[in-house]
Structure formats: C-alpha cells, structure tokens
From TrEMBL:
Superkingdom of source: Bacteria
Named cofactor requirement(s): Zn(2+)
Protein name: Aminopeptidase N
Source species of the chain: Fuscovulum ytuae
Protease in keyword set: yes
UniProt GO MF annotations: alanyl aminopeptidase activity
Gene this protein is translated from: pepN
The organism's taxonomic lineage, starting at the top: Bacteria, Pseudomonadati, Pseudomonadota, Alphaproteobacteria, Rhodobacterales
Amino acid sequence: MTVSPRAIHLSDYLPYTHLVEEVALVFRLAPKATRVAATLRLAPNPARPGRHDLRLDGENLRLLSLRLNGAALECAPDDTGLTIPAAHLPDGPFTVETEVEIDPEGNTALEGLYMSRGMYCTQCEAEGFRKITFYPDRPDVMAPFRVRVEGDLPVLLSNGNPTGQGTGWAEWVDPWPKPAYLFALVAGDLVAHSAPFRTASGREVALNIWVRKGDEDRCAYAMDSLIRSMRWDEEVYGREYDLDVFNIVAVDDFNMGAMENKGLNIFNSKFVLASPETATDDDFARIEAIIAHEYFHNWTGNRITCRDWFQLCLKEGLTVFRDQQFSGDMRSHAVKRIEDVLLLRARQFREDGGPLAHPVRPDSYVEINNFYTATIYEKGAEVIGMLKRLVGDEGYAKALDLYFTRHDGQAATIEDWLTVFQDATGRDLTQFKRWYTEAGTPRVKVWEEWDGATYTLTFEQENPPTPGQPEKGAKVIPIALGLLNPNGDEVLPTTVLELTEGRQSFRFPAATRPVPSILRGFSAPVVLEREVSPEERAFLLAHDTDPFNKWEAGRALAKDLLARMVTDGAAPGPDWLDAIARVTFDETLDPAFRALALRLPGEDDMAATLHAGGVTPDPARIWTERRRMAEALAKRLGPQLPGLIEALAEPGPFTPDARAAGRRSLRIAALNLLTRIDGGRAAQAAYRAANNMTEEVGALVALLEAGAGQEELVAFEARWAKDRNVMDKWFALQIALAHPDRAVGVTEALTRHPDFDWKNPNRFRSVIGALSGNHAGFHHASGAGYRLVADWLLKLDPLNPQTAARMSTAFDTWPRYDADRQGMVQAELARMAATPGLSRDLGEMVGRMRG
Ligand code: ARG
Ligand code: ZN
C-alpha cells in the first residue's frame, strides 16, 4: 500500500483538547435548507494540559452564526472544520453556539442527514455527524444530548427518551453520554408496530418499529427477534436495556445493513420487513441476527464505545460474536457454525489473502469507512471465540463481567479488553495479541506418526506476509482435537491443544492407530493442510461426532474432487457420490445439515484453493466442471429425489423457525439437483405451487441454474413489480446465475430497466454486485465484466463514494489469475485511479489493490 500523506495513524492518538459537557441541538427541517442550531458546553480537558485552540470538525456546512459565551465571533471555517484560536477561549468552561444550514435532499452520499423517499434520516458512523453540525466528531468525546426537532411531519424521532411533543415539534433527551457517531434523527410519515417489554428489574420499555404505511404487517418477525434479543442479553450476559423507549426505523436507502444509534436503531428496510410471501428463510435468519446485533451494541458499542476508530473491532468483533452465539441458541449451533465458517472463508480469508489484507486492529487508514470489513467484523469475532476457548466458559464470563463494570461509560481500547481478560483469568495474553495486530491467515501443516503405542501429531504454523507486514511471529492457535478408533468410536473426546510455537508435537497413548478429527468446530481461523485420503474423509463424514468436522470432511472430499476435475479431467467417482448419498438420506441427521452437506464448493472458493496449490485458476473451466459435478450428483441421487422432496413437504402454514426452514432447505437442494435431469418439470410445478418466497425463489434458482426459467422471471416481475425488496432478488438472481458468456449482456440489459434505480444502494448491489458475484461472468476472458463493473463504480463514486468503494473489492482477487486477466484488472484499476475527482474512499481502495 502506498501510504498517502493523508493517512491517519494509531500511534498519533492524543485525547481531545476539550471535554463536551452537554450538547443541545435544534433542527428546523426543510428538504433543501435544514437549519441546525447547536449549543455545546465545553471545558478544557485535564488530560491535555495547557491552552489549546478549539478545533471542531465540519463538512459541507453553511455557517450562519457563531457565538462564544453568547457573543458573536467572526471565524471562517475551512474545508474540514472550524478553529477557534486559544487566545479567544477563557480558562474555564465556556459555551459555543453555532447555526448552520445543510441540504438533506442534495445528500446522495447517504452520510449525515439525508432524505430517503420523503423521510429524513441520519447515518453518522463513522464520521457523518460533521456533515450535520460543527463538532469534535470522534468516538472518545462523549456527551449527553438534548434534541428538539421541528418539522411538518407526523413522526419526529431522536435518541433517548421523549420529553415533549406537539404539532410540528418533538423533544428528546438522551441521558447516557455518547459519541456523536451514535446520534440519530428520523422524521417522516411513519406508522409503528409496537410492543411492550419489561426488563428483568422491572423497567417498562416501549418498543416501536417505524415503517411506511402499508409495511406494518411485515414487522412481526423483527419485533419478535428484538424481544428475544433483549431477553437473551439479560439471561446470558446480564445486560439490561437502559431507556424508556427503543425505536427501530426501516429506511429504503441505506449504505450498510443497520446502525445501532442509541435508542433509535436505523435499518436498511431489507433487514426489517418480512412476511412469508416476501422473505426467504435466509432473510428471516438475517433479520433475526441483525436485529440482535444492533440491539447488543447497546452495551458493546454504546455504553462501552471505542477510543478511536482503530479500535473498531472492540465493538464489532464482540457484537458479531454475541449475535452468533444468540443465533446458535435460537437455532442450531452446528448449522450456524458451518454457515459462519462458509462466510468467513468466502469473505475474510479472501480479503486476508489479497492486497486488501489488514489486521483486526489496523494501525493506519485513509478513509475509516473502508475498514468496516470482514476482517474487523468476522475475524474480530473469531478472535474472541479463540479467547473464550483458551480461558474457558467461566473465565470468559468473569472477564465480561469485569469488562462491563470496569469500562461502563468509557471509550476503550483493545489493550483495555485484553487487560480485563488477564486480570480476570490470570492468563498472559502478550502472544495472543498478535491476532489483533498481524494480518493474514495462518497455514497449519499437520503430520502424524504412530509407533504401535504412541500417536504423535506434529503441527507447523506459517504466517504469510501481507501488505506492510513481511514477517510475523508465531500465534497462539487453539486446536480442538478428537480421536476416533477405526470402528468409528471416539477414543479421545474434544481436547484443546495450544499451538504456540512455529513447530510443536503432541503425543497420545494409542494401542491402535487412531483417525484424528482436527480443528473441531473450526477452533481457529486458519487453513489446515494435511494429506488425507478420500477414504479417511469419507470415514469422518460418516463417523465424526463433531458436526462441523463431519461437514468439513464432506466439503474437503468435494473440493479435492473438483480440483482434480479441473486440473486433470477426473470424473466424479463413487467415493464422493456414495458418501454424499448416505448423508442426504440419513434421517437421523438434521435436514439443514444435510442440505449444507449437499452444497457444492463455490467457484471463488475453488479459484482460491487452486491458486494456493500453485495452479492458475481458469474461471470458465471451474464453472463447467462444477456443473458437471452437480449433474453427476443429480444422476446418482436421481431416483430417490422425488421421494425426498415429497417427504419434506410441510403440511401446515409457513413458520420461519429453524426446523421448518431446515426442511425447506433440504427440499430445495433436492429440487435443484432434480432440475438438472428432469427438464425442469418439477421446478416449474414447484414454482407454481409455492406459497412462500423461500420456495418461490428456490424453484426459480433451480430453473435459472439449469438455463431455463424465462417464463417464471416474467411472472415474478409481474407479481412483485411494486415491491422493492422482492424486486432486488429478481434483478440479482438472473445476473448471478446467468451463463458466464451472457452475464455481462444480462447485466447491461437490466441497467436499462426502468426500475434500475442505481442511486439506491440495494438496487445497485443487486445488479452490479450480482455481476461481480458471478465468478465466471465477472472474470470472463473478454474483460467485459471488469469493464462494466469499473464503469458503474466510476458513475456511482461522485454520488455515493462509500458504496462505490465497498463494491470495488470485487477486484481484490486479481493476483490469483492468469497474466491476461491480471493485465485487464490492472488496466481498470489504473483507469479508476486516473479519474479526476475520485473520492478518498475509492481512491484508497484502488491504491491498495494496485499494490
Ligand atoms: N455499526 C454498524 C453495525 O455494524 C455499521 C455502520 C457502518 N457504517 C459505515 N458507514 N461504515 O452495525
Ligand atoms: Zn455492528
């Protein structure tokens, strides 16, 4: 990475010069000219002795007036803020009043105060508050807020508790000191789906989910998820809610998933609204997880926040870890773990192995919005999972209790977090800290030896170089191990080995040669390398007692096979086909697990695996061979598929619970295979018969993957044209599943569709993001996929740099491919880099990817 002069470094951290003792804001809303009056009560910060200028951040603000202790002050802002020289400031506390004008309607970046289809809303994390008023916009400045909103709209919301309202105005007080990134305001013609909640200690809380009229019948699942999340946090972490109201608002134009603003969470509407007719089982599961995630931030993020943005994983890694625990408790831990690892490998391992690799706690950035990544979130959660494994459940519980008591009300660091664990458990975490400071996915090689009496496992860890970090030390790697004897009985139940050195051996008494089950539950985010025969993999798939490793054995079998099909034209043999067939029809297993076992390795995953093994991946060939693999499986299972589909039909009305969803997922997986050999008859019938979105989409996907489905696409569009969230699926599916030679053409055609509202991030992602997710289409040898995606990123960037930058990660895998593709990607990156006026967001991403 070329370190730009504008890069910000962790090592430069200094506390803010002043303390903000109170903030009072008055908003007079108008689409093109909203007035924001701010009164800040400030005092010198004893942590920064001496006299200092007062520097307030501010961007795109028209300053109308400025007063210091009530007296007008002439002081011109610059591009990034406003400085009041120390000479003007009194020694003690003082008050600064500003009034500014902003343009919410002209705000296409969706950061700060903006409008989404007639409603006002905000997104302030990470640095959006500076687009609302002049303020020290940094997370370690925490203050109580009072807000008055004036506007000609029926619902006027802000953080905290309501303290008064009348026609055209409302007042809110948030007693909990908070950083500005947690500020929120919403105004609109909204209706609430409401429910009461009583906390463990008896506080009555009014819960409201605010949506547009007509959407109120799609809030029940989100509300149910919220209530279960609140209860769970009380029961599992002892954390209660701390205000009289908890509001959630669904917004159609949103850059991310959702935001944990204190007492006023704002959500991308696709992660709130759900009914059986419009949402798939995956949508229901994601809504449950994201509602929980944002709610859990109330303690891990809001009550205890981050000292600076380098500490982002302090709140995000922990909150993802907590939402994963919650989903596991609500559903199935085994299935949840497999799904989380699939996602970790697809996103985080990919990021960690390419030019965008960065530590869980980075030490520099140009644009912080570029660091809301799979590494900060998902690897951040994995690191906590390892910590919990190393200190045990009791140690973890003690450490978390100490964390909440010691740091409540503070802006903390990763050092604070690790110190809490050291103090609570006595464990030295010096070496463990490398997980936070060093990027890259460790590779762990394993050898085994058995001499008739002792079984020895030898591990070797390698920590590959990443941008800016050529050399790394050995990490602490918890390896959960079990041993089976040759008849399939477990002879060593799960035991955690601690790998702390570059090379280390562990010995076990064994009178017969055992079969090892290594890295159970995916106990560390590493790549395990071990020579294993297909027989041994099939044995583990049949006998392992650890559900993750049981699934992993089947996945490894499939990946080995697909790799051989791609590299030397091997054909799918009975070892894999029979093993998968046994799992598919094993009624003692959870249907959701069986569906996961049937899922073939993804194309991008295969490309990464081939590359790691020294083979240059050919995307078109991976696509063809993966199809051939699915067809072979379809033929092998074929005669039994109709019976399986029949047996899994749910008689009663739709319920979104894990049991019913698991049955549907296996049923749809079976239908998908059957569609490859029956000419599409079963899927066409299933499409017509579907009475819920899961089956409607499942049948449509099966048809599209088989190269059919055109009639169904027409019917789908006719039925759902008015429903944005559903239509996003319609756009995305036909691009993501298009034949590689047609993906670019289909995308281009859909960009001319009248409903391709490209300024809406969800729609943009559904079209342009779907193309970059079509591996063989995006990496088409013509280079047309690269060109089209780059064209659209350049078009979006001036309006919405955050989303453009985020989607540019499509290009981060170029080093894996052949010289032609590398050259074409480099040319697109160079073209983007040379574009005048490129945003800091996209500029940083492109710069890092070029290397
Ligand atoms: N804190 C939010 C969450 O994880 C994400 C907000 C990210 N926003 C951004 N502009 N990068 O729930
Ligand atoms: Zn979060």
